[in-house]
Amino acid sequence: MNSLSYLNPFDDFPDPQHALTEPNGLLAVGGCLAPKQLLQAYYCGIFPWFNDDDPILWWSPDPRAVFTPTLTPASRSLAKFLKKQDWTYTVNSAFEQVIKGCASPRKTQDGTWITNEIEQAYINLHHLGKAHSVEVWHLGELIGGLYGIAVGNVFCGESMFHTQTNASKGAFTALNHWLYNHQFTLIDAQLMNSHLVSLGAKAITRNEFIHHLQQNRNAVMPQSMWQQGEIPLEL
């Protein structure tokens, strides 16, 4: 039965299969953004998404947008473009700058869902070694990046940004290389949209996603892969 649950801080999450069909994937209201509850959410295939004047809303949509890590960029034109750029790619070198970049409103938007509360919650996870960023640099300036949560060998992407054309796609290409080379099995991109389709996302059912997550969320990955450093990008 599909129903909306109301959570107190640190309550266990309901089964994602109980999420509403309209709006797609809304599962629960309330709880808190403390690291313990946030990590439990991702472990169960659930993520927070809400506006500044909303209560905390938790989601598990069906279908789910995902990628399989690969060394091949989304298109030949993107590979050709990235080859021409004098860009440097890094991991976990400017997490707070990246999340602030992602929080900046887009030209087509009046606001952002990445509130100060969300920002601080993921910065806390980063300090615990659970949230990670990929950065794109040009002449020492941060021009793009993305961040997300590692759950076993599944990477749950949260948001990306760019200040130069295709810099967010460059960050995603670098992430793909990094995760592929470290035997990650899936990148979760949450809700499908045209931008994700252009990057090669595919839609799978919530059941398929949860099953894959359950099979891989306890994989022990080397913490050394998240040490601050450069990501080599060979195209």
Describe the structure.
The relative contact order is 0.18. The strands form 2 sheets. The chain has an 8-stranded mixed beta sheet, sandwiched between helices. About 2% of the residues have low confidence. It folds into 2 domains: 58 residues, Alpha-Beta Plaits (2-Layer Sandwich); 166 residues, Leucyl/phenylalanyl-tRNA-protein transferase, C-terminal domain (Aminopeptidase, 3-Layer(aba) Sandwich), CATH 3.40.630.70. With 235 residues, it is an alpha+beta fold. It is globular and about 50 Å long. The longest helix is centred in the last third of the chain and has 15 residues. Keywords: Acyltransferase, Cytoplasm, Transferase. It is an enzyme of class 2 (transferase). Functions in the N-end rule pathway of protein degradation where it conjugates Leu, Phe and, less efficiently, Met from aminoacyl-tRNAs to the N-termini of proteins containing an N-terminal arginine or lysine. This is Leucyl/phenylalanyl-tRNA--protein transferase.
Tally of DSSP helical segments: 7
CATH architecture of the largest domain: 3-Layer(aba) Sandwich
Average pLDDT rating: 95
Unreliable runs = 107-111
Give helix and strand order, one letter per element, not per position. EEHEEEHEHHEEEHEHEHE
Helix content: 25-40%
**How many domains, as an integer?**
2
Sum up the overall morphology in one term.
Answer: globular
Assign the CATH class of the largest domain: Alpha Beta
The first-to-last residue Cα distance is: 48 Å
Number of strands: 12
Per CATH, what is the topology of the largest domain?
Aminopeptidase
| Rg result | 17 Å
CATH homolog superfamily of the largest domain: Leucyl/phenylalanyl-tRNA-protein transferase, C-terminal domain
**Beta strand %:** 25-35%
Structural class call reads alpha+beta
* Major pleated sheet: 8 strands, mixed
Question: Which strand order spans the largest sheet, edge to edge or round the barrel?
Answer: 11-5-10-9-8-7-6-12
GO molecular function: leucyl-tRNA--protein transferase activity
EC number: 2.3.2.6
Keywords: Acyltransferase, Cytoplasm, Transferase
Function: Functions in the N-end rule pathway of protein degradation where it conjugates Leu, Phe and, less efficiently, Met from aminoacyl-tRNAs to the N-termini of proteins containing an N-terminal arginine or lysine.
